[in-house]
Each structure stands twice: as structure tokens, then as C-alpha cells.
């Protein structure tokens, strides 16, 4: 039996090659050959919605229909995240505020915020570090995926997803749903107000952001890009860092080959290699 005889839709190696080329071109995502089956299951839902019977037909439709691009990207991104994931980074953030931003404002950019657990963890950390529900902070949370951004902006999560929060944090920062919302909790307004959600494709030439950031969280997204893209993005992002700002990477993202740009100062935490010499180019 061939693979195609058991599949619902026709799907050839050439189709996978077209998907790979398109997602690399549009989002920088570098799909390994081992992801052929994963791509099939992620996109099959779109073929059903559009009533198409082959990947070839879907890819022709994608090329002819600009509006489909967002659906294509949403289907292929991996959005795995969690509250206080890699929790040591939130200790680093709290320490940074207490030592260097006490009574001073702080801007944070969370560059691949997925469904929002990461920016809300940042917001809770900042409220606690400043000891105020109205800390002098601005958090920009961005992602390429429009669907996860909608989830993030709503700020509603199942109670299981809140398991990394202390009892105190759950009480302080979330409201438990009742009736049809039981089993869920919503981030309080004070927390939601601290975060501005924007759709930003890191691959775009222009990012709709201005000014400097004290901390940039760019965790677990660089791994989807190839090395030259990673380096180019790091080079651009650090232009938005204040001279003593922090660049925080994911657990498997290392910039030990980029010591001309950043220095490792803690576990996957970096600072500018040359303080004060970078400027915003946009
Ligand atoms: C695995 S999640 C990481 C989420 C979070 N940063 C964390 O560490 O828990 C990767 C996120 O990167 C986003 N992403 C992928 N390519 C992107 C791009 N070109 N521009 C912006 N975001 C992108 C995906 O949509 C996804 O939400």
C-alpha cells in the first residue's frame, strides 16, 4: 500500500517541497524533511474547509489567494508555551528591576508571545517587582500567528494551564469563571492593560515598534530559523535594546558564536557586547 492510498488527500514529495519553500520565504521557518507527515496533518484541516482534494490544488489556491497566507502560517507555526516556562528568566527579570529600574520605567518586548502565557508571566513578575498593580511598564507582545494573538489578548486560560502559578498569584491575578466558563480563569484587567499585542513577523523588513526596550524576550522561536537568519535577527533586535538591557533567549538557543554582538551574563541571558554604541536604525 502506498502512503497516498491511505491518505485522505494526495500529497507528493513535490507538494512538501512547495510548502517548505513557502513557509521559509514568508516566515523564515526552516522545516526539516522529517516534518513531512506533520505538515500533512496541520494543513489537512484547511483542505477540508476549502473542499479541495489534493495538496497540489491547495498550494495553487494559496498562491492565487493572498488571504489564505495567514491561515497557512497559523497552521504551520508551533505554539507550545506555558506560564513561567524556564522560570529562571523571571527571577532574572525581577532582579533586574530591583537592581537597575527601581522607581524607573521599564519596556519589555516579548517577540514570540504565542497564546500569551509568556507576556502575562512577564506582567505578573513586573507587578510583583514594582509592588504595584500600576507599575511604570509597557509590555509589547507580538507573534506572527493571528490566532494565538487573539487567544492571548482575551487572557482566558483553563485552570490546568495555571498550575505553574502560586496560589497567591492565581488569587491575585486571575478571576475564576462561573457557569459556562467554569474550569477557566481570566487575567485581571490591571494585568491585561500592561500588555499591547501586535502582529509582527520577525522576518519583515519593518517592525512597527519604536524606542528602546530594557528587556527583549525572544525565546523558542529562533530555533525555527536557520543560522544566517538567526544572526541577522539578533543583530536587528539588539539595536532596540537599552545599553544595559537584557536579551533573553530560549533554552536551546545559543549565541556563543556572536560575541561581537552579545555577551552571555547568565543562563541564556545576554547583554550588548558593546554598551551604548548601538542605535535604532528604523
Ligand atoms: C514555540 S512558540 C514559543 C512561545 C514562547 N516564546 C515560549 O517560549 O514559550 C514559537 C512562537 O513563534 C512564533 N513565530 C514563528 N515564526 C515567527 C515569525 N517569523 N515572526 C514572529 N513569530 C513567529 C509562532 O507563531 C509561535 O507562537
What do you see in this structure?
- There is one protein chain.
- With 282 residues, the protein is of the alpha/beta class.
- The protein is 39% helix and 18% strand.
- The protein folds into two domains: 3-76, Orthogonal Bundle (Chemotaxis Receptor Methyltransferase Cher, domain 1), CATH 1.10.155; 88-272, 3-Layer(aba) Sandwich (Rossmann fold).
- Helix 3 runs antiparallel to helix 5 and helix 6 packs parallel to helix 7 (117-130).
- The longest helix has 15 residues, at 13-27.
- The protein is globular.
- Residues 276-282 have low confidence and may be disordered.
- The protein binds S-adenosylmethionine (SAM).
- The number of helical segments is 11
Query: What is the CA-based Rg, rounded?
Result: 21 Å
Number of separate strands: 10
Low-confidence spans: pLDDT under 50, at least 5 residues?
A: 276-282
Alpha carbon gap, first and last residue: 55 Å
Query: In what range is the share of β-strand residues?
Result: 15-25%
Shape: globular
The total tally of domains equals 2
> What's the pLDDT, averaged over the residues?
95
State the helical fraction.
25-40%
CATH T-level topology of the largest domain: Rossmann fold
Ligand types: S-adenosylmethionine
The name of the CATH superfamily of the largest domain reads: Vaccinia Virus protein VP39
